[in-house]
Design goal:
The protein is of the alpha/beta class and about 375 residues long. It contains 11 helices and 19 strands. Bound molecules: FE2/S2 (inorganic) cluster (FES).
Amino acid sequence: MELNLKGLGPKDMEYFENIEQEREKIIKDSSSSAIKTQYGANELANSLHPKEQFVKVVDIIEENEDTKTFVLAPDIEKGTKKLAYFRPGQYVSVEVKVDDGIYHRPYNISCSPKKVFDGFYTITIKRKKGGVVSNYFLNEVKVGDSFLISAPTGNFYYEPLRDATNVIAIVGGSGITPIISMAEAIKDGLLTCKLTILYGAKTEQNLIFKKELDELDKKCSLIDVKYILSEEDKEGYYYGYVNKDMIDQALESETSFFVCGPLSMYEYISDLLKEYQLPNKYIRHDAFFGRIDIPDNDLYELTVLTGEQEVKISCRSRETLLSAMEKNGILAPSRCHVGECGFCRSKLKSGMVRTIDGILRKADEENEYIHPCATFPESDIIIELPY
Ligand code: FES
């Protein structure tokens, strides 16, 4: 190739001749200290979205006989200096070791984000019949215990660009935890929307945060709380279930619904809301739940490939692959536990599985990826974890 030197003058030639000395001079004059690997922007990103956080239980509040609130502060000795900020409605995934198992469970943060600046979060846990982690928390955990938790995560939060300024939250049982966080954020001026909470429970005794909700209703003009009891007919409460009349009283031309509670409630409320023909974006659920009927309860072999290792365990057809791995102490990545976040997404190498409808994306289905938290075995199977 011929070099085209047209247009270069003597000054340019002089520059090229001296370029080597020039470079050496720059190297000699430069600082001998190590090149920076961390910048302000990275530090800020890490503090807002840490991979994990070490926390200590600094207080435990008994909400009712089956529910406790755990106050979590950063565990400075283990390297967490401050807690990551969150959006009201988000959850953290908590890691616990019980017997031979390693478990992760998502728990909604149940306080205002403002509490991060006071140095703590709260999570509120209701006992689940047969629930390893909820029973462990309610029976064993004490002040001073330390845990590893994820960064705040999840999409069940108010987003002014998407959601209407009038919000109706339809809540069942412990589903109140993300909603009280939203209500506290409104009271603290961190969210600007009107919030009506239709809170259903079996009895007055089963309501969580009754005192706090009454206080919010009284002191904040943007918040209105109505209680609906299904097994107790009592003055000051609605009796039965959330119905169209209750919704109509709070409805405006643009209204977003936030629905949070057990599966049976989702199904009932979904049918009720169909009448309003709302755009999809105006109906928010805290998690995707689908029913799956598994008639048998056979035992299969589950082979888990984790990098170089191969572990064989048993898995029943009525338990999820993730649940079998947790019980056997296999550290499988997970967050939401309901097939939504994709954090546990793994490759199905062989075998047949059942998956809750609507969980997998088409590309995952075609390429044989599954979400072990929402997948049940139908034969011996082999999966590869995402390491
Ligand atoms: S843990 Fe979220 S999809 Fe499985």
